[in-house]
Amino acid sequence: MIKEVTASAATPEEAVEAAKAALGAPEGADVNTDIISVEEEKKKVFGLFGGAPAKYTAKAWFEESDFADVENYIKVILESLGIENPVITFDDSDEDLRVTLDCGEDYGSVIGRRGETLDAIQYLTRLVVNKNNEGYRRVAVNVGNYREKRENTLRALARKNASKAKKYGRNIALEPMNPYERRIIHTTIQEIEGVTSYSVGSDDNRKVIIALEQGYKPQGGYNKNRRQGGGRNDRGPRRERAPKYEPDVVARPPRSDSSSASLYGKIEVNK
What we know:
The protein is α+β, with helices and mostly antiparallel strands. It has three domains: 2-63; 68-144, 2-Layer Sandwich (GMP Synthetase, Chain A, domain 3); 148-212, Ribosomal Protein S8, Chain: A, domain 1 (2-Layer Sandwich). 30% of the residues lie in helices and 20% in strands. The protein contains seven helices and nine strands; from the N terminus they run βαββαββααβαβαββα. It has helices spanning 12-23, 68-80, 108-111, 116-129, 146-168, 179-190, 224-227, and strands spanning 2-9, 32-39, 55-63, 87-91, 97-102, 139-143, 172-173, 195-200, 207-212. It is rod-shaped and about 110 Å long.
């Protein structure tokens, strides 16, 4: 989209500067100018009546990005983080809008812990982009190639835990992730035979579960027979168990009737 304005002044130079000021082009924009009309000076009649100074009209224009509002919005956020003169570029070549931030060496504060700050900027940018759009567009915001590095890390994480699931035959739960990162995990798991993935939880606690595909047998690790006492050959011969200690028992003589009598003597019943 091209934005242009016109301005007039007594000289060509003044007209051009006035047009540039009225245009309000951002710093670094490629501004074009041109003198579009000239009105010659009119002299007064008899030196008393009429007359007018010369007037030059200049036009200034530049090609404004379709995402100028989005760019200004992001700049406000970055400046609040202490980032000076950030450069923001847009790639609108496919269905997704890719936004790249150039913050010099200060991109650490823009990324934040585990990319939380960058994800927040991406979320807010997505809201602004889709505010007045009839359709929905996905937005990816990147800085310092963080997204590429994070994607490689997530793919390695997915492959590592897929191997664990195939070996031990149990489900592996990953830490909670945002939708963008969960999609990377799911895409990687689809490329690995014998495992599948699905998401559980809600909102910020939604995470990916990696599990064996139905009918796929674990490759090893968990041995049921070993839990039942099998596999002792690997640990050497069984040791003989020591005999149980049993103390000697001294037989006691049987108790006589007299021993069981009352302390008060034998009781006789009168007939």
